[in-house]
Amino acid sequence: METLVFQGLVGLSVSMYLWLLAAGLTIVFGVLGVLNFAHGSLFMLGAYFTFTYYGLWGVNFWLAIALSLLSVAVVGYFMERFFLRHIYHLDHAYQLLLTFGFILIFDDAVKMIWGGVAKIPPMPSFFEGTVSVVGRPFPFYNLFIIGTGLAVAIVVWLLFEKTWWGKMVRASASDREMASAIGVNIPTLFTGVFVFGAMLAALGGALGTPVRVVAPGIGAAMIIQAFIITVIGGLGNLKGAFVGAIIVGTLSAYGILLFPVFELFLIFLIMAVVLMVKPQGLFGG
Amino acid sequence: MTESKKISRRALLKAATVAGIGGMTLGLSKVGEAASPKEKTPAQTKSKKKILGVDVIKVGGQGVISGAHADYGWQIQAGAILAIDEINAKGGILGSKLELKFMDEELKPAVAVKNARYLATEWGAHLLFGVDSSGSAMAIGPILPELDRICVFDHASTHRLTEELVYGKGIKQIFRIAAPVYQESNMAALIFKDFPNIKRWAGIHCDYEYGYSVWALFKDTLKKYRPDVEFVSIAWAPFWTMDFSSHISAVMAAKPDAIIATPWAGEGVMLLRQALMLGVFDKIQAWFQCMGGSVDILEGISREVAAGKFKDKLWATARYIHNYPDAPENNKFVASFRKRWNRFPNYSAESAYSTIYVFKAALEKSRSLKTSDLIKAMEGLKLMTPAGERFFRPEDHQAIYNVPGGRVVIDPNYPIPILGDLKVFPAQAYYRNPPFEALKMDK
Amino acid sequence: MKTRLAILILVVLLALLPAYAGKYALYVAIHILLLSIFSLGFNLLFGYTGLLSFGQAGFYAVGAYGCAKILLTYPSLLVGIVGGVVIAGAVSLLLGFLCIRHTRIYFSMLTLSFGMMIFSLAWKWRDMTGGDDGLVGIPRAPLEIPGLFKINMAPMENYYYVVLAFAILAIYLFHRIVHSPMGLAMQGIRDSETRTACIGISVRKYRLLSFTIAGVYAGLAGALLPPLESTVTPPLAHWSHSAEPVLATLLGGVYSFSGPIVGSVLFYLLKDIIVRFTEYWQMCLGIIVVVLVIGFRGGVVSIFSRKGGRR
User: pTM here?
Assistant: First the structure.
């Protein structure tokens, strides 16, 4: 019993990275109608920037994270403003293709700038140590990640439900033309949403830096999981992304504990079943 | 109707032009080499003065140079370049200089095969070497007879390469210079058979053939010495696993006395770091990191080792470690490598470096670049290399040499951790011998 | 007339390729032919029917593994190839039933998941597929019809002619398909589903047909691979492999007949040549993709042709 609880908690911490990644992806799809294949690359860039600021230049950990969010925001701005904006009117296929092109570019760009070898940053000392959960040591860092993920969920919810910007975003998502008619500057809003989504992904990458490999290709490796989560939760649905991330993260953890053989196949099977039976996802309407 | 036909026609015209240009480009690239496509040996400006018949001996290599495992390709390249420069400075091999071309296998067998074909048939490599991934090695092996080239494998560790392809199928063009999976699996068993308090073993393994074979071989050998041992838990981690927390907590639930782990390179470092975070080293008695003696892992965990976090419980081996043997060949190699590249040589660097010297020894013996002559020269070849004396046994073309296992420790003589408390066992004793039974690998 | 002449010149050039090209060039040419077949099938689904599949590599792999398993037990080339194609066709028909009810993003995601399910099966089902090591030692079996002839395939030139013959057959069949009422129906569905349905065409039936044919073509390309490489491994089913016909077709021209073929030539040559000079071929490819999507959605073919690509 304790084993299951503990494993579930571990899975929950893994889910939080997935949530941060999926949140941005689903917001961008819901508002802009674009499925950004290169979203995982933004996650990867968040990790790389944090490695540089914190690991190489010795900047304070929190400041390093803030700086990498800003850096990725700039990258996201350029991506949306100068490239994605031109293809909103096109078939989804072209958006997938364009963003796929970006995956290729980013993977090699990080190789060029940082080298192809995996980066190993130092571990911030204030994160060492464990907390005893059901009699077993649970890393303080993982608790921090769970806390941060939950905090982000609350902040994002507040942002979209209670603020004026959030209301504009939701309005534009449901009816672009009407929103524009009442004076919302759609292009600017879209850029803002895209950048926001990018920063969420970057946050996920940045937070993972002390404990996960930073190497070219980690973005592409994660994007499929993000797709799966947004599909399960419902494309464009934030609550769905949160729940979907928890489902995928904890199921993986339990899979490793209980059914080591079938994990990969199962995840894709679930995605296929959801797509066939309820394509709008668990929470989509 | 006419509209689409018009497009079609133009498109076809353009397609014809493009295809034609493409074909000619490829064809033209052969013109400079003045060879007919039927010729077997790669086109070279023939040289009557050189014993080997060419001015330049072309050596084609490949390794992984991007991703979480990229350091190994870099090391192979670094070791090879060092050896080639040393040999060329002394006049080359029988008067002919060496030239290297190195390509990225991208951890994909299809790419590795394409590279091998390109190097051998288009670029004109006389000799092939390298290859980090076992999958790539298994794909390249069978085409070597068609390419009529030998390939010395520097890293790929699957037992199947030598057992099945060389011994089983008689593909004599394959040679392996690096220790295969016999090394880590048996070393762990041989070291820990003498720890009576360690009875419950768990494994965190790569979810591909490497992990399956190490786990199977380890269990086989340990059981022979210690029938009282139990294997209580196993977790499988595929390529691109970034977060091992679930795997670690899964196996720790079974309360093992010790853990053996195969994830390597960048993944290995992160696995160890996450294990530290989960307080594993307070609970277990020992952790055997299979390729933990590899320079990139030692560099990656040096801060933690220096701080004593592993509580002297971390053990490892590799396919060569820079502090063994303490002999002139090795010390000279390590010193030159550090001077040139400002890093310690990894086992893949040592393999590549020794590979070039093996080529030299073989060519000096055969005095010919013909594959069949080279094979004869290399079978049974004994050569002193930095890792020790290597012997290429004729049965399966596997090089036999001793590599120790030990505890990961800090030594004042080295800026990065090393393996200390070395345990050396004669490789001859634990390498498998023909006739080979297929390895039963459970999941 | 001009078209016929162009095709004739092309076929002659290709037939004579072994005479003036080196061994490696021949190897590359075979791969280009395989990619062309793969992309052609893909484009029936995408360019002509309007469905973007990111899982075609799954059918490619089924064709490859199918042929490999056959050749390992019964080394006769035609049996292996035809067997692989038939199995791939059956699987795509089956999966097609499940996939074609959905469109656009959902279709793409669904095909992605099925493709990756095939990938994970290939990786995990060691007993059947050899796992991550794959199937090794597949013979380049002789081309034979018992009682009539038996041609040794060991020289690569011979195998090249076999692949060329299949490619020409595949292209010819494709031409017949797209210029048939079936092909027109598919284009109608692409352009407007509602209108096409209104004139009594079963949207589902033609989508399924298109999907299955695409799967057959992918399976053919896959089945022709094992005799060439002697090894088949799981990455053949991975979504990143599915991206190849997508990129090749985009490069050549989505709305043209020869686009996938032109694109395959360019894509393969580009990658092969770029990789000799720089390790950053991915970036070069990525930049080309971005430029094409922003500016030249009709692909290379549209640059040369006056009519250009639509949309």
Answer: 0.89
